[in-house]
Every structure is written in structure tokens, then in C-alpha cells.
Amino acid sequence: MATLLSPLLIRGTEPVPLLEALGRVLAEDVVAPIDLPTFRNSQMDGYAVDTASLTAAPATLPVRAVLAAGDGVVAHVPGTATKIMTGAPLPTGADAVVPVEDTVPVEDTVPVEDTVPVEDTAAEGRGLRVTVCRLPEPGAYVRERGSDIHRGRTLLPAGTVVAARHVAALAAVGLTHVSVRTRPRVAVISTGSELVPGGSVLAPGKIHDSNGPALAASAAANGALVVSVDRSGDDAEVFAAKLARAAAVAEVVFTSGGVSKGDFEVVKDVLGPRGAEFVSVAMQPGGPQGTALVDSVPVLTFPGNPVSALVSFEVFARPVLRAAAGLPAVEPETRPLSTGLSSVPGKRQFLRARRDGGAVVAIPGAGSHLIAAMATADVLLDIPADTSDLEPGELVKVLPL
Ligand SMILES: Nc1nc2c(c(=O)[nH]1)N[C@H]1C(S)=C(S)[C@@H](COP(=O)(O)OP(=O)(O)OC[C@H]3O[C@@H](n4cnc5c(N)ncnc54)[C@H](O)[C@@H]3O)O[C@H]1N2
Ligand code: MOO
Question: Which positions fall inside the MoaB/Mog domain (predicted)?
């Protein structure tokens, strides 16, 4: 199976808008095109001062201007203060910000010109004075240019799985697109004449197709691009046509159902004569498996029971899809069992279970049709074929779902 799916690992790259990059994998290092912060600015709403001329506190200084975030850079005049908002550029020559909380405004209207000769750079501040109650250290509440990242440094390395925080960094340096690894294209076909889509009224004997949505969701959750989700009854010609359509758009096709020993095994009937290999794997659920090539596109034929289809995906498809997408492998855990359990010997069992603090507890019921119970699981227990009984506290291998 590994060889069959190995072409999926050879991938190209594509540029995508930032929001579409969420969950995708960066194809190359992203280098910061600008410094962050891009200019020296205030970390607080307060007053920009120069510590060289502010030698004792309290000290009352004329307020020379009021700067909002978005204003341009002004020149500082020694011995004055500039009222400054968080994010506004620090006046050239100022070297510290005194937060508003450490100041008291002086409510008089002594003209600035009476106290210190200044250039009239910003009318808003004229006539105001402020008492600075605490001496700031040089650099206090100043965000230096490039103190977050310097232009030319690696902002995000290739292989990063893009999350919201990465979108923030990319947006901050002004990028609108990034280059990501292409996703493996997956098609899903559920088979069985009993299947109808969700939302349909169930005629006698019919059931909702859950494997189609389940396999599509599993593929998408593991880095794939789901290009088609289809359903086929047990008519061989119809299934063959749907398969050909799926193979035309996908790099791998997953089918479900039609691979056991009944009278209506459409997947076996269509693919058997075309060189497919059907085997019984010594695992449960997920025993009946098959592989085929349709128009050079690999096809994995999963068994129809809903739990079997999902477990098959986890065991055979998830590792290679994640590797193809560039996503990290899901590492197994080792946990003690909360309660004992027995396992059918001779087959590797994948039992549904839930994490229970640091331990793990099996979910009762081994039937491969128990899809509601499966929904309560967050892990599979991987019980070796030679194990039949496990005591509480025994360590087991756990595969996170
Ligand atoms: N005589 C034997 N019978 C069966 C064997 C066996 O070895 N000998 N194996 C059993 C095992 S194990 C499994 S698993 C299933 C696999 O059968 P198929 O892959 O042929 O699947 P179907 O017969 O089509 O369906 C089985 C079961 O699952 C339901 N199903 C199928 N597709 C869907 C779907 N898309 N959504 C929801 N449910 C689905 C279907 O209605 C059946 O109940 O064979 C056992 N039998
Ligand atoms: O293997 Mo079936 O896949 O046990 O239910």
C-alpha cells in the first residue's frame, strides 16, 4: 500500500490568500520583508520625554503636542513632553514614555511659549502642562524598531502548519499570499443499494450514507482536498462509471462497502477483473481490504461497516495523507487502562476508547456498526493479536483520533 500511495508524496506548491492558508503547510521559509515594529513607537498612552533633561520627579513639563497612532514622526524638544497614544511614533529625540497613570495634568493655560521656546509643530498640545510623578528609565515603554523581528530574518519556517497566530504575523508584515504545499486530492465513493443521502426519508431497508461524509471529513481533517463525494448502488456499470469520474479528478479514491463475501459486492465485482487485490487483514475492525489502480490512480477499498471504514482510514490512509500534506504524523501514546478488557486473540484489535485523565477507558461494544458509540471515542486502543486479556493499570498503545 505504501508503494501504491507513494506518488502522493511528490507535491507542488501554490500561492494562497492568507485566510485560505489556515491549516495548510508553508512550502518555503517566509522572510520578513520589513522590520516589526516598523518604527519606534509608544507602548502606553502617556507622555514621551527625554530622560536626559528629566532628572527629578515630580517635574512639570510643557506639553508640546498630542500624537495619535497613525500620526507621523515629530521632533522632540528637550525639556518638554509630548502626549502620545499607544502605537504612535516616538518623537525623534525622546527616549521614554511616562504612562498617563504616573502623571497629573496641570489644569491651567500657561502658554507653552512662556515656559519653553518650542516650534509650533502640533497645536493640540499647546498651553497644557503635565506633572510627571515618577522618573522613567531610558527606553521605558518604548517599542524599538525591529525589536520583534528584523527585515530579512525568517518569520516562519517551511513546514509550518498555518494557524491564526501565523496569519497574524504574515498580515503584520503586509503579506497577502503565502506559498503552501498542494493538498492531495481525494475522492470518496460509498457503495450499497441501501444508501440514501442525509435529509432523505428512509424507505424500508434504507439507511443514510454515513461513510461518504465520514471518509470525506477524515480526509479533509488530515490535509486532503476532497474533490468528490459520490454514492453508488450495486450496479456494476454505474459504479465503474463513477469510479472513472473519481479517478479523473483525484489522486486517490476511497471506496466503502462491497468487499466481503455476499452476493452483491460491487467493488469486488468491478475491480477484481481489473487486477485489484483483495485481502483479509488480521485486524478488527477493518479486516476486508482491497487495493486497485484505476487509470493509474490508486484506489483503497474499505469495508462498509461504518466503524470499519473509519478505522481503515485511520490505519491505512491517515499516515500517508498527512505525510503528503506535510502535516506532522499523529504519534501514538502509551496509557494505563482504567478498567480491564478482553480482546479477540489472533487479530490486532482497534478498540474505541476515551482518555480518562492520564489513563484510558475502553468504550463497551465491539460491533462495527456502533457509530454513535464511536462518536464518543477520542482514541483507538491498538491491542496486539497475541493479547487476549488486559488488567486494569496495564499499559496500552493508544492512537489519537
Ligand atoms: N460471510 C461473511 N460476512 C461478512 C464478513 C465475512 O468475513 N464473512 N465480514 C464482515 C465484515 S468484518 C465486514 S467489515 C463487512 C464488510 O462488508 P462490505 O465491505 O461488503 O460492506 P457492505 O456489505 O456493503 O456493508 C456492511 C455494513 O455496513 C453498512 N454500510 C455500508 N456502507 C455504508 C455507508 N456508506 N454508510 C453507512 N453504513 C454503511 C451496510 O449497510 C452493512 O450493514 O462484511 C461483514 N460480513
Ligand atoms: O472488519 Mo469488519 O471490518 O470487523 O467489521
Answer: 187-323
